[in-house]
Amino acid sequence: MTTFLQANWENIIMVNYEIDPEILLPFLPKGVEIDLCEGKAYMSLVGFMFKNTKIFKVPIPYFGNFEEINLRFYVKRIEGTTIKRGVVFINETIPYRIVAWIANKLYKEHYTVVPTKHFIHQIGEKQQVKFDWLLDKKWNHILVETEVASKEITANSLEEFIYEHYYGYTKVNECATEEYHLQHPSWKVCKMLNYNINCDFSSMYGPAFSVLNTTKPTAVFLAKGSSVSVDWKRNRLHMTNERS
Fold first, then answer.
1. Least buried of 99, 128, 198, 234, by fewest C-beta within 10 Å?
2. Which residue has the higher pLDDT, 63 or 40?
């Protein structure tokens, strides 16, 4: 299988919100359904470091290390006896236009470009991780304080549900969906001590998500991360009402 993208994803913050599934339906690609955890739908505001990025195993000079902030929700596709758990991105924000152009052009993704920065600081057994992005001349941020020590994800937990999704689904149009596969080991997580979220969801992601401006996160996680690869091959899902 040809690998399209390789990178290290590090210090992955997941700010997780319970949300009314009805809000997600207009963004749901054909051929998948909303994946629920104990009957609840979730969205995640995510910040992490993209490092040592390679396209078709070729390093990207000057643009290989950057912050990404995205908003995603969780879906599944049932294929025979197999359940493929994946994510749908509402938007992915990075600081470099050339990287966004490549992703949008080749994969019909939803990348936008804004200034970003980060802060990672360790003092003894504690660490702070912060991601900032500039929107409408105002800095938004995700900030967490955690223990440095990490542990395996607990089985059958919300952490496992949030992190263990290995497919991506892109809504190409109302009748077409593309499926791609992500590969990485199960990540380790750090104990959360404190967090602070400042995100204008309605300006960043549209009025459909304004409810998140006044919604308290259900949980906030930090994963150490790992090397990640994304397969070049994408499957076009064929539905009976799909137009080519």
1. 198
2. 40
